[in-house]
Write a structure and sequence with these properties.
Length: 184
């Protein structure tokens, strides 16, 4: 599996400099687009995490920005004339519940009791855009593909539950990832 995007620096609309209409409670909530290519033909479901390892010195843990599980590949649009057969469109996080209700999104770090900033599901169980407070940060988008849905994951799951389900799924998931930069 190959993951790519049309940028290496997260565009303003999806990050710290997002316009007010792209924010909820001050948090950027419009997810950025990316592509999934060279997908193993056996893959029927996609799952991903977007995390910020550079947040560890700032807050003491890796910040979770977005997680998704059990997204059926067949529910996504294919354009076989496009060099990228499978595209995750901009603002997918907010559109996902209505478009593909069987896919679920996990909690991001805004839901942490240690942060205590937010309890709105539209903020804590969706994409939470990059807002590095100290310097530019590198974010990692890791995507896995499996033949079957991962059991036991409901809306608002925690990232450790996704990782455990991937380890216990009984197959070696197809996977890929990219690093992108968020500007301070």
């Amino acid at each position: 599996m190959k993951i790519s995007a049309d940028f290496t620096i997260v565009p303003d609309d999806f990050a710290k400099a997002a316009a007010p209409e792209y924010r909820n409670g001050g948090v950027p909530v419009v997810s950025f687009p990316f592509y999934i290519d060279e997908l193993n033909p056996e893959v029927r479901y996609l799952h991903w995490e977007l995390v910020d390892p550079d947040s560890i010195p700032v807050c003491g843990f890796e910040w979770i920005h977005w997680s998704v599980a059990n997204l059926p590949v067949d529910a996504l649009m294919y354009d076989f004339n496009d060099s990228h057969a499978l595209a995750i469109p901009p603002d997918f996080s907010r559109q996902l519940p209505a478009m593909i209700p069987e896919a679920v999104q996990g909690r991001n770090s805004s839901a942490s009791k240690f942060v205590g900033r937010e309890n709105d599901p539209a903020v804590i169980m969706r994409y939470n855009g990059p807002q590095p407070p100290d310097k530019d940060h590198e974010y990692y988008l890791h995507v896995w593909g499996t033949a079957k849905p991962l059991p036991g994951l409901n809306q608002g799951f925690w990232l450790n539950e996704l990782l455990r389900a991937l380890r216990n799924c009984g197959e070696t998931p197809d996977q890929g990832g990219i690093f992108v930069t968020g500007k301070a």
